[in-house]
Amino acid sequence: MGQKIERDHQRFRKIVRGKVKSNLSKYISRGELIGKKGKDLVSIPLPTIDIPQFRYGNKGSGGVGQGEGDVGTPLGPGQGNQPGKGAGDQPGGHILEVELTMEEMAAILGEELALPRIEPRGKKNIVSTRDRYSGIRQTGPESLRHFKRTFKRAMKRQIASRTYDPRDPIVVPIRQDKQYRSWKEVQQPQSVAVILYMMDVSGSMTDEQKEIVRIEAFWIDTWIKAHYQGVETVYIVHDAAAHEVDEHTFYHTRESGGTKISSAYELAEKIITQRYAPDQWNVYAFHFSDGDNWGDDIPKCIELLNEKLLPNLNLFGYGQVESPYGSGEFYEYVHELLSERDNVVCSRIPDRQSILDSIKEFLGTGR
To answer: Is residue 270 part of a domain?
Structure first.
C-alpha cells in the first residue's frame, strides 16, 4: 500500500512540474513563486490541480444518472443561472499550494530555458565530509549487516561441517559468520562563489523597476546556488555615490540625486580585492540601471570595466530596466564590449514579461 501511495505521489509531482514549466513565464512575471520562501521552499499557487479524493453527499440527494436533467447538462457545482443574494453560507473552492525545493525550481528553470551548467573557475573550496561504505569488517551494528556475505559464510561453514541438509536447506548464521559494512570519511571539496548586485537607486528608478530587479535577482541566485555549495551575496546601491547595504535596503532605498555609475564599479572592485580574491572565488557581478548616467562618467566606467572588473569576473551582466525618466544610453556603451569580452552579457528589460528572456540571456553562457 505504501509503495502505491509513493507511486501516486511521484506521478502527482510530475504533473506539478509540468504545470510549473508550462506556466513558468506567467509565474515569474507575476512574482508568485517568490511569495513565500520559508527556509528552502517556494510556495506556488496552482488553481488548476486538485488532489484526487472521495466526496460524500447527503443520502437521497441524487447523483450521476439520478434526478432531472437534459443531455449535455454540465455536472458539478454552479449549475443554473441563479442571481447572487449577498453573502453565502457554503464553503468556496480552495487554491492548492504545492511546495517545491529550491533545487527543483532551479532544475525546472534550467530545463525550460535550456541553460548550460556553470563551469566553476575559482579555486577556493569548502570541504564537506561524507561517509562512504566501501569495506567489510567482522563487527558493527546490525543495521549495517551485509546479508549476502553473512549468508554465504554461514552456508560454507555448514557445508564444511556437514550440517547442511539440501532437503531441508536451513542456514543459521552464528556470530563468526556475520559480516558488516564499514565506512570511511571522504572529504569532498566544493567550489564557492560570490554574487555582487549593483543597482541605480536615483530618482528615475521607480518601484516597478526595483520589483523587476528583485524577481530577476531571485532567479539568478537560484540558478547559481544550484552549482555551488557556498555562495555569498553583496548588495551595492548608487546614485552619485555608492554604498554597500543589506538586502532589504537594496530593494527599498530611493535617492533623489544624480547618477554616477563609476562609483558602484569602484566599490565593487574594492570589495572584490579585499574580500574575494578572484583566483580563489568564482565572482559574478550584475548591474541594473535605467541607463541614465552623468555624461563625463562614461569613459571612466568603461575603463573600470576593462581594466579592473572584467579580468576578475566569471560573468558581468548589465540589465537595463527601461524607465520613462532615463535616457538609456549606457546600454550601447556596455554592448560594445560584447565583441571584445566573452564574460559580458547585456539585456534590455522593458517590463515584467521580458524577465524570463533576460534571465536566459544572463545565464545562457554557462560561465
So the answer is: yes
Instruction: Kindly report the backbone phi and psi dihedral angles of residue 59, in degrees, each rounded to the nearest multiple of 5, phi listed first.
Output: -60, 130
> Which range has the top average pLDDT, 62-66, 71-75, 225-229, 355-359?
355-359
Which residue did the predictor score with more confidence, 285 or 141? Answer: 285
Assess whether 301 and 328 both reside in one domain: yes
Amino acid at position 197, single letter: Y
Compute φ and ψ for 88, nearest 5 degrees.
Answer: -95, 175
Using one digit for the tens of pLDDT, what is the confidence trace for 218-245? 889 889 988 887 789 999 999 889 999 9
Distance CA 9, CA 7 (A): 5
Please report the pLDDT score of residue 349 as a whole number: 93
Task: Judge contact between 120 and 367, C-beta under 8 A.
Answer: no
Residues spanned by the domain of 168: 127-186
Give the model confidence (pLDDT) of 158-173 as tens digits.
888 888 888 888 888 8
Number of domains in the chain: 3
C-alpha cell at 229: 555549495
Question: Do 178 and 216 lie in a common domain?
Answer: no
Which DSSP string corresponds to 10-35?
HHHHHHHHHHHHHTHHHHHHHTGGGS
- 42 and 169 within one domain: no
Q: Round to whole Å and give the CA distance between 199 and 194.
A: 16
Whether residue 2 lies inside any domain: the answer is yes
Is 136 within 8 Å of 152 (Cβ atoms)?
no
Q: Is 85 domain-assigned?
A: no
User: Does the residue 75 lie in any domain?
Assistant: no
Q: What is the CATH number of the domain that holds 261?
A: 3.40.50.410
Best CA proximity match to 123, nearest among 44, 192, 54, 180:
192
Helical segments of the chain, H only = 2-22, 24-30, 102-113, 147-160, 207-225, 247-252, 261-275, 298-304, 330-335, 355-363
Q: Which amino acid is at 163?
A: T
